[in-house]
Amino acid sequence: MSSNSLHPLHPLFFPASVALIGASSDPERIGGRPLRFLLEAGFKGAIYPVNRSGAAQIQGLPAYQNLMDIPGPVEHAIIAVPVPGVEAALQECARKGVRVVQVFTAGFAEVDAQGAEAQQRLVDICRAADMRMVGPNSLGVLNPSTQLIATFSTALNGLRPQHGVIGLATQSGAFGSATYGMATLRGIGLSRVIATGNEADVDVAECIDYLADDPDTRVICAALEACKDASRLRAALLKAADAGKPVIIMKVGRTEIGAAAAATHTGSLAGNDAVYDTVFAECGAYRAASIEDMLDLAHFCAVTGALPQNEQVAIMTGSGGIGILMADCASEAGMQLPDLSSGAAQRLHEILPFAVVANPFDTTAQVTSVPDGVTRVLEAMAAEDAGFGTLFAYLAHVGLSPTRFASTEKGLIALRQANPQRQLVVVMLSDPGVTQRLEAAGVSVFADPTRAVRAVAGAARMGRLRRQLHRLPATHGTQAPVAQALPVALTEHQAKAMLGDAGIPVLPEQVCTSAAQAVEAANRMGYPVVAKIVSIDIAHKTEIGGVLINLPDAKSVAQAYDTILQRAGSAAPAAHIDGVLIAPMVSGGVETILGIHVDPVFGPMVMFGLGGTAVELYKDVAFASAPLTPQRAQALVNSVRASALLSGWRGGPQYDMQALTQAMCRLSEFATRHAQHLGGIDINPFVVQVEGAVCLDALISTR
Amino acid sequence: MSSNSLHPLHPLFFPASVALIGASSDPERIGGRPLRFLLEAGFKGAIYPVNRSGAAQIQGLPAYQNLMDIPGPVEHAIIAVPVPGVEAALQECARKGVRVVQVFTAGFAEVDAQGAEAQQRLVDICRAADMRMVGPNSLGVLNPSTQLIATFSTALNGLRPQHGVIGLATQSGAFGSATYGMATLRGIGLSRVIATGNEADVDVAECIDYLADDPDTRVICAALEACKDASRLRAALLKAADAGKPVIIMKVGRTEIGAAAAATHTGSLAGNDAVYDTVFAECGAYRAASIEDMLDLAHFCAVTGALPQNEQVAIMTGSGGIGILMADCASEAGMQLPDLSSGAAQRLHEILPFAVVANPFDTTAQVTSVPDGVTRVLEAMAAEDAGFGTLFAYLAHVGLSPTRFASTEKGLIALRQANPQRQLVVVMLSDPGVTQRLEAAGVSVFADPTRAVRAVAGAARMGRLRRQLHRLPATHGTQAPVAQALPVALTEHQAKAMLGDAGIPVLPEQVCTSAAQAVEAANRMGYPVVAKIVSIDIAHKTEIGGVLINLPDAKSVAQAYDTILQRAGSAAPAAHIDGVLIAPMVSGGVETILGIHVDPVFGPMVMFGLGGTAVELYKDVAFASAPLTPQRAQALVNSVRASALLSGWRGGPQYDMQALTQAMCRLSEFATRHAQHLGGIDINPFVVQVEGAVCLDALISTR
User: Are residues A216 and A359 in the same domain?
Assistant: First the structure.
């Protein structure tokens, strides 16, 4: 029995007994397939077929007409009856004291509102009985360690699961089958597989939580279509990170943006997948782009047992061209190739007098004429003081001749044992036996140089993410307390006043209702000033000519007041006008954009970008979950390419980074307090100056 | 015998007789291995071992002390003797009338200058004898169709070549072995393999030329480290394109930029690989990022026999999640998913009443309960009027059960035959026999959805490139006639005058040598004007305060004249000063950057980008070989993302595209005329206005 027997999902994977409600004698039907798989695999626990028909035996096992007829306890039940019978079957499970039920039957919330109601009744039954449910519309569960094959996936017809250390939790059954199939064909073993379907109760996050506890699982793969409970997902990912287990996630399906969010520019930029990217990264998980990438990375982690210590690599190669290919790929993937030290250079020079010491280190064909040349070169490189986390060896096709390769194989294994802190990755064509022996000793083997580098880059990136996890305060998200209610609609002036109260620098501006008042305000502020229309009904002030800038004197302010009101009156005669805003004119500085997107699932996210084409054209923006610390605000700024413009770009000045990050923190705290009623915020531009920074325009959308 | 027997490389691949000079009895030595491979494979031609030792037999064959002793003719000779003996052996080949020699021996130009001289002597011998040479330092040649295994690659120890339609030409032997090995392990056959080594005579370009002619070869893979003869490479790529043969190239190794080129900003942006990217694309070749990508794409092309007609795809899937994964990947890779027509929607609705018709089309599990559901759905989609070139079918793991899959297999093959104009790509886990039968019928099979989409995207992109090949005039490049000599160094004013003469719009500006002359010039031009220092010794005018803009009247012009001379005098007292340039002040318009980089190999390339951060920060620039046609100039502009700013960006105006592309054409012609003495040109900014465009600053670097 595994040591996490207290986890609520334990009976799902380690049941002493399984009942199959809707069991079929036909081994090809949904109610027959799991029974056949359990029998073929030799599941050791009790198996109880249940079928209303009253057959004495099903597929050779004693059958029961009702679950209650089963003499002993039932820990894990599978329901595979048509929709109308599901509710009654579940009630029977509750009466019987079943601990976990899988509902394979489809036709619930995924179909229509009526299905959603029926699904809610299933949840209510489970809650009342303290019973857990996977599904409905789920594909099943595999535990190769106990031969529990509790699924109806036809992938099991041809492919028997191999036991390994990679756990797989997926919402989509088809996605799970595809991943399971590709892993099994590649000889990659799995510890657990679960498809959660409609997730009425158990979701992928809870499965990740289980796998983080599970001692059989060292690496976690997951596939999400949509997350409904953000805090559960964050907590599970952080738990896995704390347990030192890599989590590799695929997220398919586009994010739907709530109507409120789309009202802001920030909301539209957050669209699609930026929010998932952000949350996964903050919680130390790696987002894979394809099933193959996910398996490459998971297998690498399973073989090495640890993530690379850093993103620095050294490369030994017998082919200059392939060394450069790997080096280019490594640097594209964000890794660095430090120079080798003079000590290493000397050692390498002793082994290969004519080779040029560099990284990548090209041994040339010379290495083949030196006894144990490959091993000795790698030893010299591994003894290097430079702190690279991964050592690559490109060895062409030598692994295809196991006998000739035997001494190098031994050398590689010894090298890995002597250098547990460095990952050793061999790229070569290889006999399966050679690969297996090397990988059992923690030496990773890849055939394609590029795939090898990409997998290591993914693992190293995950390592970096895990050194900077973003743990949110407990009050985060839509459950945050409401500091104050927000009006339904806010003018620019009201928005800025509110942000000013929250600690974000704004200008000393004034809404004026007469030309005289405008002049008086301008006199007080000093010239030049700007004048803007203030109306809740006019969102695009510039387009109607409602903004006049660089007004140099009292006369021009008085004129501007009249002109603006006149333009507003003719462009939007029905608009309610509050007056004209007078504010000091700001020039110079760098225009940035600060934003808040309140994601319906993940809560308030801060956006940062630079003004101009950087955001519009190149989508050069980044997001982080609110609230921010100053360090995290700084990291968010740094993650935007255009932020180079803030720090001495082409001999220009250093702009006030502290003022910027402080404003971002204040904004993130404001958003956290108001998450419940906030749609989103755009502060555009937020001008960062050499000293100080100031918000020049702001839009707050509420909901 | 193949039909291209007139090609100079024909005897390399189809020799009636092969002599091995330096043949060894030890089948593991470089001089022994090719002999063993030829014998093991059963090469049908004559094999003559040659060794000075005078042994009567080598590896069971009659041996010869001298090449001249061989009774019959020798078409193809291999030299595998140490460096000091190579020259004499080559002379013997010349005397014997050998048609093609491979020199396996290393230690020539790749080592040092002495080696380069020795290599040149080998070339001279070959030229004099009208004999062709591969190498030195080459790894050999394979022709699986005649069992010619004329290589010493140890990859052949374990991996026997399979005959196929993909030809592989590579400079690096190691790269060739890696590619050959990976292809062979995957069961991908090859028509010819050649490693060209030092390329003293035969280069990869000539091999591509041969493969373009070769009727056994339908797809060409190539790997370059450096190209020495641009026009030969361009011509070979265009010949392959005209022959309808896809060319997939890997280029490894960084481009070295000549000193002259690096003197311009354009030159530094052209650095690394932008020039290769441009030339490959212009000649219709696809540049692959990894060996696996190259093989995926080559195999796809080999199976389908044609490139997709366009970049539009339709996707049928049984899994919503995987459908979206594929759709996302397709659009990231530049492909489009057109909507299905109402006709197709109706047909699909008849087959699957509950499915939602969209692209991707998710059949849901419902399709399994419809007889021949998959085939009927695909038929309906293939009958679609929308012009998509590729139809994907995601079929999970059904191919693993050949019996159950038999009827679908038949349906897919019939569908492919009925729709020769559309590519049919099945993504599924599959039994090797199933895959083989489908692929033999032209139906492509992939296991990983993402790899399938990427391969199709690559092929479709190649198809697009081939519809817009860039054929240069014969006078292109560094061999172009010199219209006029260029001075060693040009001032801004001289540069602009020269560009103005070439038809590029410049301002009516004047170099003035007194304040009075400056005022007179300004009066004539109209105010405001700008004033700039003119000195060949001052490259960075702004940094010394040598530029004053927006001068509104005569007084300020006179002052500016004095100020600028004073500043230049104190900042650069030794500089030779020509005077102060007076020019009209231009405001408004969009700042673009036009440039010329004269690549030492590929000749003059035009660069286009937009001003500001687009170029500096996002490297949003594109190159094209000079000279340009107006169509190609327009395509170059369109390929830059920031060019959206020129065409009604966010409600802004349409800028004068014709003035821009015309200037680009004139610039490209100027560069072509002066290629021999030109280092590079930066026109920055080139301001494009609503009507017209003008060069505001220019730098011409000569060499």
Answer: no
